[in-house]
UniProtKB/TrEMBL annotation, chain A:
GO molecular function, one term: phenol 2-monooxygenase activity
Name this polypeptide is given: Phenol hydroxylase subunit P4
Domain of life: Bacteria
Organism: Sphingobium fuliginis (strain ATCC 27551)
UniProtKB/TrEMBL annotation, chain B:
Keywords associated with the record: Monooxygenase, Oxidoreductase
Stretches of the chain forming a coiled coil according to its record: none
Taxonomic lineage: Bacteria, Pseudomonadati, Pseudomonadota, Alphaproteobacteria, Sphingomonadales
Stretches assigned to the YHS domain: 412-452
Species assigned in the record: Sphingobium fuliginis (strain ATCC 27551)
Name of the protein in question: Phenol 2-monooxygenase
One Pfam family per UniProt: YHS
Superkingdom to which the source organism belongs: Bacteria
Length: 119, 518
């Protein structure tokens, strides 16, 4: 709905891609691992290979969980903004079709949190 | 010659009120009233009879000065005595100081925002009655902000995390939640503001803020905070009555007002409760001596008191906001979710955190038998193990945030406490994420407003959280350290764990000195 106002009410979105100096904001959350209180956000170079996103920024935070080391990434199940998504590990963020402010989630079957309790 | 003496008759309350409010107004003669008051119609609220508005307290300026000055004298006598007798050393425990930090950073600036908001809309209503009432409330809110800051300045002399409360309110990520709440209200029209703040916040939710903080202060030996609480409470009672009066007045004026007011109630009850996440956490985790749990406070102050209120408003066609269903489902999770988040995001906070002790956790299990042991105790036990091993768990990455409430996306799906909740919307080629259906509904009602949100994490990525003159291309540039410098957080002093903090050490040292002979 339009905002009720005393005059024309139109604004530029504050977080358009071009405001991020060439980076593309990507969110990622690890389902079944509530030790991490929320998904996190990273400004990524679009040419970053997806595998490097995992091995770099994601590992830095998620690597604190005992489930992280030795994940079989072939069996990981991903979604992007709620829809199924199958990343090509060698391809870049852009070549994977990811765009600014995409929200990824992933599940690692068999690794379901501390004592398998989702935490 | 004898002059006839006319004994001045003292005016009655009603007459004085009439003279000092509407009596001060006038009919404009050379400008149309719509041009003088252009702001009180665009929201679609229809008022036919402004005279039907009545201030239930009939408070006039002269009475106001007298009454408030008296309270102020008492308050400052106690605040001074507190300072002179090192009142901060009588606290139950050094951890309590973090409640004071949360209050001065998270709440006192909102009093000031409220002062500004009421001053602003006090110019916008065409009738003198509500204008005077708004002016009076604006003054109250200014005083609340001042007395809170004065009382808490006694702590600021000794402990960290309070000195930059204004700057933190403007920039520190977690404080963008309260800031955006008020900015949203202040950028509505005068009727939305008064429903949002005067009714939803002051009437529906204020007890859930005041009772925990002020009773918490009393239980934990904080005379200063307790006193400003009591000093403000009589004003709050007046604000609550006023809020209720306004809502009834608006609802009675025209049936077209009802759906508009209902929409605002739905929005502001949700935004208010999202904001109260901070209070829930304070109540369950930050008071060394606890008053009652968040769940208990919710039962008394919302379910009982506000349940009755909404039953009363039913005759106007107002129903309980639908978000209350979800709030009930979150009742036994809210404080735990928040503390788990603040524990791990402690690097960008201006107060300290700690893991609940065994006794704390037993209390939490008793208060939250259905949720604590199953969902939250395992996290704390694991983190305690990490701390014991010298590798404390910390999330240094930037959390994903909700576009509307701006809270990190830490809430779980209603009814499914092991799945984080996420909602999504597209608008004009951009995508947005939300913590809940209710925040998404608020966005979709006014997308053009919320696409302007300053999301704290994004501001860092855009380079807006660096001090002037910073060169992000310089060799060895550390964006995280630079952002902390911009936020004015002294790493290792203002943020981090309570155990081992300078505050903890100093409190123990000074209290020891105060109790020793030499
Ligand atoms: Fe206030
Ligand atoms: Fe939200």
């Amino acid at each position: 709905m339009a905002v009720k106002a005393i005059d024309t009410y139109e604004f530029e979105p504050a977080d358009k891609a071009e405001n991020f100096h060439g980076a593309c904001v990507i969110y990622a959350g690890w389902d079944g691992h509530l030790l991490f209180s929320s998904p996190y956000a990273w400004p990524l170079p679009p040419d970053l290979p997806f595998a490097h996103f995992i091995a770099g920024p994601m590992a830095e935070i998620f690597g604190q969980h005992p489930d992280w080391a030795g994940i079989d990434w072939n069996s990981a199940v991903w979604t992007r903004n709620g829809e199924a998504f199958a990343p090509d590990m060698q391809a870049s963020i852009a070549a994977n079709g990811l765009s600014h402010k995409d929200a990824l989630r992933f599940r690692t079957p068999g690794r379901d949190g501390l004592n398998g309790a989702g935490i | 010659m004898d002059m006839p003496v006319t004994k001045k008759k003292k005016l009655g309350l009603k007459e004085r009120y009439a003279l000092m409010t509407r009596g001060l107004g006038w009919e404009p003669s050379y400008q149309p009233i719509d041009d003088i008051f252009p702001m009180d119609r665009f929201e679609g609220i229809k008022i036919h009879d402004w005279d039907a508005w009545e201030d239930p307290f009939r408070l006039t300026m002269d009475a106001y000065w007298k009454y408030q000055a008296e309270k102020e004298r008492k308050l400052y006598a106690i605040v001074d005595a507190f300072a002179q007798s090192n009142g901060h050393l009588t606290l139950s425990d050094a951890r309590y100081i973090n409640t004071v930090k949360l209050f001065v950073n998270g709440f006192a600036p909102l009093e000031y925002m409220s002062h500004r908001g009421f001053a602003h809309i006090g110019r916008q209503f065409r009738d003198v009655g509500p204008r005077v009432a708004c002016m009076m409330q604006s003054l109250d809110e200014m005083r609340h902000s001042q007395t809170q800051i004065h009382a808490i300045s006694n702590y600021n002399r000794y402990y960290s995390g309070m000195a930059e409360f204004r700057h933190h309110h403007d920039y520190l990520p977690y404080l963008q939640v309260p800031k955006s709440f008020f900015e949203d209200a202040a950028t509505g029209g005068p009727f939305e503001f008064i429903v949002a703040i005067g009714f939803a916040f002051e009437y529906v939710l204020t007890n859930l803020v005041f009772v925990p903080f002020i009773s918490g202060a009393a239980y934990n030996g904080d005379m200063g905070a307790m006193t400003f609480g009591f000093s403000a409470q009589s004003d709050e009672a007046r604000h609550m009555t006023l809020g209720l009066e306004v809502i009834k007045f608006v609802l009675e004026q025209d049936p077209v007002n009802v759906p508009i007011v209902q929409k605002w109630l739905n929005k502001w009850t949700w935004r208010g409760v999202r904001l109260l996440t901070l209070v829930a956490m304070m109540q369950d985790y930050m008071l060394p001596k606890r008053v009652m749990s968040w769940a208990e406070a919710w039962e008394i102050y919302f379910e009982e008191n506000c349940g009755a209120l909404f039953r009363d408003l039913a005759r106007y066609g107002i129903v309980m906001p639908p978000c209350v269903e979800q709030i009930r489902l979150e009742r036994d999770h809210l404080s735990h979710i928040a503390w788990c988040h603040f524990y791990q995001a402690r690097g960008t906070s201006d107060f300290h955190v700690w893991l609940p002790s065994k006794e704390d956790m037993d209390w939490l299990s008793a208060k939250y038998p259905d949720t604590f042991d199953r969902y939250y105790r395992p996290r704390y036990e694991y983190w305690a193990k990490c701390e014991a091993e010298g590798k404390p768990f910390e999330a240094t990455a930037v959390p994903m945030q909700c576009q509307v409430c701006q809270i990190p996306m830490m809430f779980t799906e209603p009814g499914d406490p092991l799945t984080l909740c996420q909602r999504h919307a597209d608008y004009k080629g951009e995508q947005y994420h939300f913590c809940s259906d209710h925040c998404r509904d608020i966005f979709e009602d006014e997308p053009e407003k919320f696409i302007q949100s300053k999301i704290a994490g994004h501001e860092v990525f855009k380079g807006n959280a660096f001090r002037p003159g910073t060169d992000p291309t310089a060799e060895g540039f550390n964006p995280a350290a630079e952002a902390l410098a911009f936020f004015r957080i002294e790493h290792g002093r203002d943020n981090g764990l309570h155990n081992g903090s300078t505050d903890e050490r100093n409190f123990a040292l000074w209290r020891g000195l105060a109790k020793a002979n030499d």
